[in-house]
Amino acid sequence: MTQQWVDLHLHTTCSDGHHSPRDLVHLAAEAGMKAIAVADHDNIDGIDTAMTAGEELGIEVISAVELSSQWQEYSDIHLLGYGFDHHHPELTRQLADFRNYRAGRNRQIVEKVNRQLAEEGRQALDFSEIEASAGGTIGRPHIALALRTAGYVQNHDEAFDRYLVPNNVAKRFFPIAEAIALIHRAGGVAVLAHPPYVTRNHGALEALIEVFVEMGLDGLEAYNNGVNQDGVYWLIGLARRHDLIVTGGSDFHGSEDSPLAIGGGVGRLRIPYRCVEEIYSALHLMREGKNST
Asked: Is residue 188, in this structure, part of any structural domain at all?
């Protein structure tokens, strides 16, 4: 039987991606994906559109989200939720609160960037134009794109180095225990995204996983763009030692200067369909447990 491939970590214009949900599904079809997950940052607005497009093109689209969380000194830990009810009232309300905060944060960042541009004798960015181009939740990559379009920088990295990092405004994060619990209440499973970006120290990462498992963590994104094949094998072993499911995704945003492609990562890693099966199995066990109580 021919191996079937998936990508369970994709972004759209509903957060900081460069493609609409419908266009993203079409790109996934062209890439030969059997299943995908639209996992926008703190945003689930693109899921219905992606699911509709998936039905038309014969691609499974799994509900997903990437929550920004923190624990102790570890800030901006990314937690993926899969298979939840994306119309769940509490989830939609909490994410709306996040979007409201983020909108204010990004307006403040643009104001600070504009002060720097004024000092350089350059014309200010128009926040309303950035909003319109984003087509959804504004993120710093949208501001970076505005800087590139204006000709102030040559690429994404220069935009961050010269303007966005010096003019940053603190983000808001979910405490990770609350993020895991929220995903569970909405009926989904919680997976730690790209673990090497939390820490590359194997001992420290395993210690963190032990803590997060106690909080209810369900899985690890073993296939990710922060590791090579040996790193994937190590993360799969880590997951198995702690009875966690294994998932994978490219973290594709679609920017022109990114080396990432749908269905691949560093070294063109391929993500097998069994990752989807593991999500479904975990969801089944969770729902069986709830029904038996």
From this structure: yes
Angle at 60 between CA 33 and CA 54, to 5 degrees: 90
Q: Can you give the pLDDT of all 293 residues of the chain as single tens digits?
A: 567 999 999 999 888 888 999 999 999 999 999 999 999 999 999 999 999 999 999 999 999 999 999 999 998 899 999 999 999 999 999 999 988 887 788 899 999 999 999 999 999 999 989 888 776 667 788 899 999 999 999 998 999 999 999 999 988 889 999 999 999 999 999 999 999 999 999 999 999 999 999 999 999 999 999 988 899 999 999 999 999 999 999 999 987 777 888 987 655 679 999 999 999 999 999 988 777 65
Residue 184, phi then psi, degrees to nearest 5: -65, -40
CATH of the domain at 44: 3.20.20.140
Q: Which long-range contacts (CB under 8 A, 24 or more apart) does 115-121 make?
A: 115/167, 116/163, 116/166, 116/167, 117/152, 117/163
Q: Which residues face 68 on adjacent strands?
A: 78
Domain that holds residue 247: 5-94+178-292
Work out whether strand 60-71 and strand 33-38 pair parallel, antiparallel, or are unpaired.
parallel
Is residue 151 a part of any domain in this protein? no
Please tell me the total count of domains within the chain: 1
Q: Report the C-alpha gap between 3 and 5 in whole angstroms.
A: 7
Q: How many CB atoms lie within 10 A of CB 243?
A: 9
